[in-house]
């Protein structure tokens, strides 16, 4: 048997018939235009990577309040929808499938990175640990305002509208970013959620926002066009819990009832955009135990380890992040067993083409 047969096999996930099981993981690249409007350069980048069975486009803020970092794209204004349309067309032209990751950063933000007049909000008034990159350099993240009930309802509505906007922009669906310590994950975790209302306290209450938002997305986009991304047992952005096993077992089992297209989990060996040493929980096995639908595994995969996940049926698809940055033709390299180029961290979040659209394909590299 060849070492990539399963990776290259087609699969039905929700509403989509995918050409292969190789997924491009969502990656913030901080190259959107003014006011979070995607540009022709962004369309070129995604078009280059359309060989993936499924592209999960970088996290896009659902509202001005949901933005945390510089130059990230939005999906809440007309101009942004128009900008994204060029991105989805570029991918569809090459026969690809693309969904948009919907993002609210919660407390992981700084006023200098958001539109004027917007607040930083979270389940509770507890600052995120660490510092964030701003136009004035690295700064601490301020204490956020705790959302009141009306604020939570408005946020759920923003997610629903963002899903409608994404479909209007030509996306094939949406992925809810409930991972890596952002708003939904802040509600999940006991360290960032000290609420005493029905959104805090027992695990089922802390999972309420996840459940409500996922249900709203399913209602607005169709359940078979919605995925959810979780980072069980991760600690990125200070999302830690007194009992993560109970928390994530409950979160996943509640999602089972919604009939959504997939669950996407990240191995704890990768924290955000970096590898970490010493992590040992088997997140994929954990998710498989609790989740009844299609499962995407991400974090630190090679062709060999990804193929093993599929052969053993631990996962149904595998997502690659950094390899897709440096190898626009990753699927072709997997097929022809060509070596992979390594992504350069220095240009992960910088502006312009360098380190973005200028990584060559294997064929171009030989020609150079
Ligand atoms: C530059 C960069 C940006 C990222 N941005 C996001 C993001 O917007 N949303 C998200 O869920 N994960 C994000 N991640 C995490 C990746 O989706 C993925 O989980 C991680 O890179 C591990 O996969 P890999 O080992 O194949 O790179 C980002 C990672 C990188 C390297």
Question: What is the third-level CATH name, the topology?
Answer: TIM Barrel
Which architecture does the CATH hierarchy give at level 2? Answer: Alpha-Beta Barrel
* Proportion of beta-strand residues: 15-25%
- What is the structural class? alpha/beta
> What is the topology, as strand order, of the major beta sheet?
3-4-5-10-11-12-15-16
Counted by DSSP, the helix tally is: 12
Bound ligands, each once: flavin mononucleotide
Q: If you had to describe this structure to a student in words, what would you say it looks like?
A:
It is a single chain. This protein is of the alpha/beta class and 368 residues long. It has one domain (11-367): TIM Barrel (Alpha-Beta Barrel), CATH 3.20.20.70. Helix content is 32%, strand content 17%. The chain has 12 helices and 16 strands. The chain has helices at 40-48, 78-93, 149-168, 183-188, 203-206, 208-221, 244-256, 283-290, 303-311, 322-326, 330-336, 362-367, and strands spanning 11-13, 16-18, 22-24, 54-61, 98-103, 121-122, 131-134, 137-140, 145-146, 173-177, 226-230, 262-266, 270-271, 274-275, 294-298, 317-320. The strands form 5 sheets. It has an 8-stranded parallel β-barrel with strand order 3-4-5-10-11-12-15-16, surrounded by 5 helices. A two-stranded antiparallel sheet has the order 1-2. Helix 1 (40-48) links the parallel strand 3 (22-24) and strand 4. Helix 1 runs parallel beside helix 2 (78-93) and helix 3 (149-168) packs parallel to helix 6 (208-221). The longest helix is centred in the middle third of the chain and has 20 residues, at 149-168. It is globular and about 60 Å long. Bound molecules: flavin mononucleotide (FMN). Residues 25-28, 58-59, 101, 177, 179-180, 229, 266, 270, 273, 298-301, 320-323, 348 line the site of flavin mononucleotide.
